[in-house]
Structure formats: C-alpha cells, structure tokens
Amino acid sequence: MPRHVSLRHLRCFVTVAETGSFTIAASRLFLTQSSLTATIQQFEEAVGVRLFDRSTRRVAMTQEAIRFKVDAERLLSQFDGAISDLQAFSEGRRGHVRISAATSVTHHFLIDAITSFRAAYPNITISLRDASAAQVEQMVFNGDIDFAVETRYRSYDELIYTPLFEDRYGVICRRDHPLAKGRGSIMWNKLDPVGYVGFSAETGIGAYLRARAGDSALFANPHDEITSTPSLYSMLSTGNRYSVLPALAASEFDFSKFVFRELRAPSLSREVCLITRQLRALSSSSERFLRFLRDTMRNKPIPAGVRLFTEAPTPTESGRLRATLAPRKR
Q1: pLDDT over threshold 70, residue 320
Q2: Helix (H) or strand (E) holding 42
Q3: Which DSSP letter does residue 302 get?
C-alpha cells in the first residue's frame, strides 16, 4: 500500500460503499461531510482510480470499487482482529476465538475442550463455524477464522498443516445389514453399489474416497449423497443401506444399532490436521484454546482405528512442522 494511503482512507471508502451515501457515512464515522469527501478524493487521487459515481440523488460504486471492496473489508477485518487481540491480552485474557472443525472432531474432542476452556477463561468467547472441507482452507487463508481442524483438501502453499491424528476408513451399517455379518475387515470389492450412501465431492470424506478408493464401482454408479454425519445417520436408519466413514466419525453412531468394519485392499486412512496461515501468528486466545484441545485429545479415550500423532508445538512462522505416530492410548 502506498505510504500516503492509510486505514482512514479504507474505512471511509468501505463505509461510503456500504451506505451509498456520503451524508450517512459521515455520520457513522463522526466526520463532517466535507472532510469525508476530501478523504475519498485523496484516496482516488492516490490510487489513480475513480471509486464512486456521484449524482445529486445517489452515490454508486464503479466497477473498480466493487472489485476492491472485498479486499478492503478483509484488510480492515484482519487489522481490527489483530488490535482486538492485543487489547484483550492487556485487559486480562479477554478475546475471541474463531474455529472450524470436522463434525466428528467437534463431537468427540472440541465440545469437551470448549467446556473446559470456558470454565478457565469465561471472558473469551468462541465462534464455531460449519463449512465444507472445500470452504475451510479458504476461510483460514482469508482470515475469516483463526484456525481449522480438518483434512487437507487443496493443500494451499500459504497454509500450514500440522497433523493431529489419523483414522481408518470402514463400512458403517445397521446390525441387520448383510455387511454386518462376520468379523474383521471387509474388502472393497465386496461392496455392492446398491444401497451405498456417499458423501458429496465437496466434503473432505467424499473428495478423499473418490481419489483413493481405486477402481471401486461405488462412485461410478448413481447413489444417494449427503454432506454430514447427522444426515447420514438418518439415511442409514431407514433401511438396507450402508456408507463408508473414518473411524472417529463412525464412533458417533450408536453401536447397539450399527456396526463398523474396517476396509482393506486398499486400507485407507484420513489425516486430520490443524490448519493455520503461514506468516501469521495465532492470537494469544487461540494459543490458549489449542492447549486445552491437545489436553482433551491426550486424555480422552480414543476409539479403535484412531491413532494420535505425538504432540507438536503450535505452528510458527518458521514453516511446516513434522510429527511422528504415537501408540494409541487405551
């Protein structure tokens, strides 16, 4: 940004763009209308682009302004978030943590971590965002959330993926389903495409299976699709159907009614990571919450088929962190 363009210019631009009025914008910003007009003119001269078409009745953004508004809002949001975190630290651990996580992670780990965290830090609030794996990486990249606990989807170079755990894929079905009979693992070629309920391609599970399940006929034939495990639970409860899930997601099901059997040939596992932004330090509130999350993962019983990675320090600006597999806790 040129040194003669400041946050004041960005705030004035965004406020006029949102209100469509110099009069209303000036009131919101506690400025005189003449001062606001001069600021916008300075901004336009600095960047060499006309931002607003003015008439006696209305103010309209130019095409260049429409494109720039998204970037300006993101810059202001990132700046305000950083300043908010600094103020929160000085005011005694006040702050806000924005998270997105896979549904199974939320149910098995995150809710317990949030409960413990809120008891220790009641003045730090938490936003938990629901989004598909395709959206989560973009949200971290844009600064819409502080971090995510999800599988890789596109593997952005600008993001850091710190492995937390892996879990094996298997079949989930009702106890009266033919696939529930027998013990041990099941081979992929024993799965009948009839009755299969799959995850859509924009989900982490759906994208992974389509890429790694080899020549399975499941994806080549028409089948029902869902985007979440709660929806899947309802679908499988209705009749002679089955699906493929990683072990942690399967642990959400009532095993008095359902059976989970691991798949082989090929044996597949998903790797769930802590996803953060390169060259951007986590806020002190996020760092505190991650300690609680790691404690929860370390101390809570782990379902069969899930392996935790050894605890690693919080990602830093130095680059990607490596982790090695640790024995499963029993």
Answers
A1: no
A2: helix 33-47
A3: P
